[in-house]
Protein backbone atom coordinates (compact mmCIF):
# COMPACT_ATOMS: atom_id res chain seq x y z
CA UNK A 1 0.00 0.00 0.00
CA UNK A 2 2.81 2.44 0.86
CA UNK A 3 4.47 1.70 -2.49
CA UNK A 4 1.20 2.36 -4.32
CA UNK A 5 0.72 5.66 -2.50
CA UNK A 6 4.28 6.75 -3.32
CA UNK A 7 4.00 5.85 -7.00
CA UNK A 8 0.68 7.65 -7.42
CA UNK A 9 2.01 10.74 -5.61
CA UNK A 10 4.91 10.89 -8.06
CA UNK A 11 2.54 10.50 -11.02
CA UNK A 12 0.27 13.31 -9.87
CA UNK A 13 3.23 15.60 -9.31
CA UNK A 14 4.41 14.90 -12.86
CA UNK A 15 0.95 15.67 -14.21
CA UNK A 16 0.82 19.08 -12.58
CA UNK A 17 2.85 20.65 -15.38
CA UNK A 18 1.05 18.81 -18.18
CA UNK A 19 -1.94 19.92 -20.21
CA UNK A 20 -5.23 18.14 -20.80
CA UNK A 21 -7.30 19.75 -23.54
CA UNK A 22 -10.95 18.71 -23.30
CA UNK A 23 -12.28 18.95 -26.82
CA UNK A 24 -15.80 17.59 -26.44
CA UNK A 25 -18.06 16.47 -23.65
CA UNK A 26 -21.56 15.16 -24.17
CA UNK A 27 -24.26 13.08 -22.56
CA UNK A 28 -24.90 9.78 -24.29
CA UNK A 29 -28.02 7.67 -24.36
CA UNK A 30 -25.94 4.54 -23.84
CA UNK A 31 -27.27 3.32 -20.51
CA UNK A 32 -26.93 6.73 -18.88
CA UNK A 33 -23.15 7.06 -18.93
CA UNK A 34 -21.38 10.39 -19.30
CA UNK A 35 -18.73 10.42 -22.02
CA UNK A 36 -15.85 12.91 -22.20
CA UNK A 37 -13.62 13.09 -25.27
CA UNK A 38 -10.30 14.85 -24.80
CA UNK A 39 -6.72 15.02 -25.99
CA UNK A 40 -3.53 14.56 -24.03
CA UNK A 41 -0.64 16.77 -25.05
CA UNK A 42 2.09 14.19 -24.47
CA UNK A 43 5.55 15.42 -23.63
CA UNK A 44 6.85 11.86 -23.78
CA UNK A 45 5.55 11.13 -27.28
CA UNK A 46 5.77 14.72 -28.59
CA UNK A 47 2.25 14.73 -29.97
CA UNK A 48 -1.38 15.07 -28.95
CA UNK A 49 -3.28 11.83 -28.55
CA UNK A 50 -7.03 11.23 -28.21
CA UNK A 51 -8.68 9.64 -25.21
CA UNK A 52 -12.21 8.97 -24.04
CA UNK A 53 -13.32 8.90 -20.42
CA UNK A 54 -16.58 7.24 -19.42
CA UNK A 55 -18.29 8.04 -16.12
CA UNK A 56 -20.91 5.47 -15.01
CA UNK A 57 -24.54 6.57 -14.67
CA UNK A 58 -25.89 8.04 -11.48
CA UNK A 59 -22.74 9.82 -10.34
CA UNK A 60 -20.26 12.55 -11.19
CA UNK A 61 -17.54 9.91 -10.88
CA UNK A 62 -15.85 11.28 -7.79
CA UNK A 63 -14.21 8.66 -5.66
CA UNK A 64 -14.75 5.85 -8.15
CA UNK A 65 -12.01 3.39 -9.06
CA UNK A 66 -10.27 4.13 -12.37
CA UNK A 67 -10.01 1.48 -15.08
CA UNK A 68 -7.42 2.17 -17.78
CA UNK A 69 -8.46 0.12 -20.82
CA UNK A 70 -6.05 -0.32 -23.74
CA UNK A 71 -7.21 -0.98 -27.29
CA UNK A 72 -6.25 -3.45 -30.00
CA UNK A 73 -4.22 -2.80 -33.16
CA UNK A 74 -5.48 -0.45 -35.83
CA UNK A 75 -7.82 1.38 -33.49
CA UNK A 76 -7.99 4.58 -31.49
CA UNK A 77 -9.94 2.72 -28.83
CA UNK A 78 -13.17 4.60 -29.38
CA UNK A 79 -15.07 2.68 -32.06
CA UNK A 80 -13.82 -0.69 -30.89
CA UNK A 81 -14.48 -0.45 -27.17
CA UNK A 82 -17.35 2.02 -26.85
CA UNK A 83 -19.98 -0.55 -27.71
CA UNK A 84 -23.48 -0.81 -26.31
CA UNK A 85 -22.38 -4.03 -24.62
CA UNK A 86 -19.63 -2.20 -22.75
CA UNK A 87 -21.97 0.56 -21.56
CA UNK A 88 -24.57 -1.98 -20.44
CA UNK A 89 -21.98 -3.99 -18.53
CA UNK A 90 -20.67 -0.85 -16.85
CA UNK A 91 -24.15 0.27 -15.79
CA UNK A 92 -24.90 -3.18 -14.39
CA UNK A 93 -22.20 -2.71 -11.75
CA UNK A 94 -24.13 0.13 -10.14
CA UNK A 95 -22.29 1.90 -7.34
CA UNK A 96 -19.26 -0.39 -7.78
CA UNK A 97 -18.69 0.57 -11.43
CA UNK A 98 -15.34 2.22 -12.18
CA UNK A 99 -14.64 5.30 -14.21
CA UNK A 100 -13.01 4.13 -17.44
CA UNK A 101 -10.43 5.84 -19.62
CA UNK A 102 -9.72 4.59 -23.13
CA UNK A 103 -6.45 6.19 -24.33
CA UNK A 104 -5.45 6.20 -27.97
CA UNK A 105 -2.20 4.35 -28.58
CA UNK A 106 -1.67 4.33 -32.32
CA UNK A 107 -2.11 1.45 -34.74
CA UNK A 108 0.59 -0.88 -33.46
CA UNK A 109 2.38 0.54 -30.43
CA UNK A 110 1.83 -2.65 -28.44
CA UNK A 111 1.86 -0.34 -25.43
CA UNK A 112 5.50 -0.77 -24.48
CA UNK A 113 8.56 1.45 -24.55
CA UNK A 114 10.25 1.08 -27.94
CA UNK A 115 11.82 3.05 -30.76
CA UNK A 116 8.47 4.59 -31.81
CA UNK A 117 8.05 6.04 -28.32
CA UNK A 118 7.73 5.24 -24.61
CA UNK A 119 4.16 3.94 -24.84
CA UNK A 120 4.19 2.14 -21.51
CA UNK A 121 5.55 5.19 -19.73
CA UNK A 122 2.93 7.30 -21.49
CA UNK A 123 0.14 5.26 -19.91
CA UNK A 124 1.58 5.42 -16.40
CA UNK A 125 3.11 8.89 -16.35
CA UNK A 126 0.58 10.82 -18.44
CA UNK A 127 -2.70 8.98 -19.06
CA UNK A 128 -3.28 7.90 -15.47
CA UNK A 129 -2.49 11.27 -13.83
CA UNK A 130 -4.60 13.11 -16.40
CA UNK A 131 -7.56 10.77 -15.92
CA UNK A 132 -7.35 10.94 -12.13
CA UNK A 133 -7.36 14.73 -12.25
CA UNK A 134 -10.10 14.98 -14.88
CA UNK A 135 -12.46 12.54 -13.17
CA UNK A 136 -11.44 13.02 -9.55
CA UNK A 137 -11.24 9.23 -9.35
CA UNK A 138 -9.80 7.29 -6.42
CA UNK A 139 -6.03 7.37 -6.84
CA UNK A 140 -5.67 4.33 -4.58
CA UNK A 141 -7.82 2.10 -6.80
CA UNK A 142 -6.47 1.95 -10.34
CA UNK A 143 -7.01 -1.07 -12.59
CA UNK A 144 -5.54 -1.76 -16.02
CA UNK A 145 -6.81 -4.02 -18.77
CA UNK A 146 -7.07 -4.33 -22.51
CA UNK A 147 -8.00 -6.35 -25.56
CA UNK A 148 -5.51 -8.21 -27.80
CA UNK A 149 -2.62 -5.74 -28.25
CA UNK A 150 -4.07 -3.88 -25.29
CA UNK A 151 -4.29 -7.08 -23.26
CA UNK A 152 -0.60 -7.67 -23.80
CA UNK A 153 0.10 -4.04 -22.94
CA UNK A 154 -1.87 -4.16 -19.70
CA UNK A 155 -0.09 -7.31 -18.54
CA UNK A 156 3.30 -5.94 -19.55
CA UNK A 157 2.85 -2.51 -17.95
CA UNK A 158 1.52 -3.94 -14.69
CA UNK A 159 4.54 -6.18 -14.16
CA UNK A 160 6.86 -3.18 -14.36
CA UNK A 161 4.81 -1.24 -11.77
CA UNK A 162 4.17 -3.65 -8.90
CA UNK A 163 1.73 -2.34 -6.34
CA UNK A 164 0.22 0.36 -8.57
CA UNK A 165 -2.84 -1.54 -9.77
CA UNK A 166 -5.76 -3.10 -7.90
CA UNK A 167 -6.54 -5.43 -10.83
CA UNK A 168 -4.99 -6.49 -14.14
CA UNK A 169 -6.87 -7.90 -17.13
CA UNK A 170 -5.61 -9.48 -20.34
CA UNK A 171 -8.54 -10.15 -22.68
CA UNK A 172 -7.50 -12.28 -25.69
CA UNK A 173 -4.00 -10.98 -24.98
CA UNK A 174 -1.62 -11.01 -27.95
CA UNK A 175 1.12 -13.31 -26.66
CA UNK A 176 3.88 -15.20 -28.43
CA UNK A 177 6.43 -17.75 -27.27
CA UNK A 178 9.14 -16.63 -29.71
CA UNK A 179 10.12 -13.36 -31.35
CA UNK A 180 10.06 -14.97 -34.79
CA UNK A 181 6.41 -15.94 -34.33
CA UNK A 182 5.22 -12.47 -33.31
CA UNK A 183 3.14 -10.18 -35.50
CA UNK A 184 4.89 -7.67 -37.76
CA UNK A 185 5.55 -4.40 -35.88
CA UNK A 186 4.66 -5.93 -32.51
CA UNK A 187 8.30 -5.57 -31.44
CA UNK A 188 11.27 -3.70 -32.83
CA UNK A 189 13.54 -6.75 -32.89
CA UNK A 190 14.43 -9.87 -30.91
CA UNK A 191 15.97 -7.80 -28.12
CA UNK A 192 12.77 -5.77 -27.73
CA UNK A 193 10.78 -9.00 -27.60
CA UNK A 194 13.13 -10.32 -24.92
CA UNK A 195 12.57 -7.33 -22.67
CA UNK A 196 8.79 -7.66 -23.05
CA UNK A 197 8.44 -11.45 -23.22
CA UNK A 198 5.50 -12.12 -20.92
CA UNK A 199 5.81 -15.90 -20.94
CA UNK A 200 9.54 -15.76 -20.32
CA UNK A 201 9.13 -13.34 -17.43
CA UNK A 202 6.36 -15.42 -15.86
CA UNK A 203 8.59 -18.49 -15.71
CA UNK A 204 10.90 -16.85 -13.22
CA UNK A 205 8.71 -15.14 -10.63
CA UNK A 206 5.29 -14.05 -9.43
CA UNK A 207 4.87 -10.97 -11.59
CA UNK A 208 1.83 -9.51 -9.84
CA UNK A 209 2.17 -10.55 -6.17
CA UNK A 210 -1.39 -10.65 -4.74
CA UNK A 211 -3.00 -8.38 -7.35
CA UNK A 212 -5.99 -10.15 -8.96
CA UNK A 213 -5.34 -11.05 -12.61
CA UNK A 214 -7.96 -11.99 -15.20
CA UNK A 215 -7.07 -13.81 -18.43
CA UNK A 216 -9.62 -14.95 -20.99
CA UNK A 217 -9.67 -16.15 -24.57
CA UNK A 218 -12.10 -17.59 -27.10
CA UNK A 219 -12.18 -21.28 -27.91
CA UNK A 220 -11.11 -20.67 -31.52
CA UNK A 221 -8.61 -17.88 -30.81
CA UNK A 222 -5.09 -18.53 -32.09
CA UNK A 223 -3.75 -16.95 -28.89
CA UNK A 224 -5.47 -19.56 -26.71
CA UNK A 225 -2.39 -21.80 -26.16
CA UNK A 226 -0.13 -18.89 -25.16
CA UNK A 227 -2.74 -17.46 -22.79
CA UNK A 228 -3.24 -20.86 -21.19
CA UNK A 229 0.52 -21.20 -20.78
CA UNK A 230 0.76 -17.79 -19.13
CA UNK A 231 -2.04 -18.67 -16.71
CA UNK A 232 -0.20 -21.87 -15.75
CA UNK A 233 3.09 -20.07 -15.17
CA UNK A 234 1.49 -17.33 -13.09
CA UNK A 235 -0.39 -19.82 -10.94
CA UNK A 236 2.75 -21.89 -10.45
CA UNK A 237 4.37 -18.87 -8.82
CA UNK A 238 1.40 -17.99 -6.60
CA UNK A 239 -0.39 -15.32 -8.61
CA UNK A 240 -4.14 -14.81 -8.11
CA UNK A 241 -5.26 -15.68 -11.65
CA UNK A 242 -8.69 -16.28 -13.11
CA UNK A 243 -8.42 -17.94 -16.53
CA UNK A 244 -11.62 -18.17 -18.54
CA UNK A 245 -12.30 -19.79 -21.92
CA UNK A 246 -15.61 -19.17 -23.69
CA UNK A 247 -17.03 -19.82 -27.17
CA UNK A 248 -15.77 -17.41 -29.79
CA UNK A 249 -12.79 -16.14 -31.70
CA UNK A 250 -10.56 -13.09 -31.75
CA UNK A 251 -13.22 -10.54 -32.64
CA UNK A 252 -15.68 -7.97 -31.35
CA UNK A 253 -18.52 -10.49 -31.08
CA UNK A 254 -16.52 -12.45 -28.54
CA UNK A 255 -15.43 -9.36 -26.60
CA UNK A 256 -18.94 -7.91 -26.52
CA UNK A 257 -20.17 -11.19 -25.04
CA UNK A 258 -17.55 -10.95 -22.29
CA UNK A 259 -17.98 -7.32 -21.18
CA UNK A 260 -20.27 -8.32 -18.28
CA UNK A 261 -17.52 -10.61 -16.96
CA UNK A 262 -14.83 -7.97 -17.47
CA UNK A 263 -16.67 -5.21 -15.64
CA UNK A 264 -17.73 -7.53 -12.82
CA UNK A 265 -14.09 -8.55 -12.33
CA UNK A 266 -12.77 -4.98 -12.16
CA UNK A 267 -15.60 -3.80 -9.90
CA UNK A 268 -15.11 -6.73 -7.53
CA UNK A 269 -11.31 -6.56 -7.43
CA UNK A 270 -11.20 -2.81 -6.84
CA UNK A 271 -14.13 -2.47 -4.48
CA UNK A 272 -13.40 -0.05 -1.67
CA UNK A 273 -13.53 -0.79 2.06
Which sequence of SSEs, written as H and E, runs from N to C? Answer: HEEEEHHEEEHEHEHHEHEH
User: How large a portion of the residues is in β-strands, by DSSP E?
Assistant: 15-25%
- In what order do the strands lie side by side in the largest sheet? 1-2-3-5-4-8-9-10-11
**Weakly predicted, low-confidence segments:** 1-18
Radius of gyration, taken over Cα atoms and rounded to an integer in Å:
17 Å
The structural class is alpha/beta
Counting DSSP E segments of at least 2 residues, the number of strands comes to 11
Mean pLDDT: 89
Shape: globular
Quickly count the helices: 9
Q: Say what the CATH topology is.
A: Rossmann fold
What is the helical fraction, as a range of percent?
25-40%
Question: How many domains?
Answer: 1
Distance between the termini: 14 Å
Level-1 CATH class name: Alpha Beta
The biggest beta sheet reads:
9 strands, mixed
Fourth CATH level, the homologous superfamily: Alpha/Beta hydrolase fold, catalytic domain
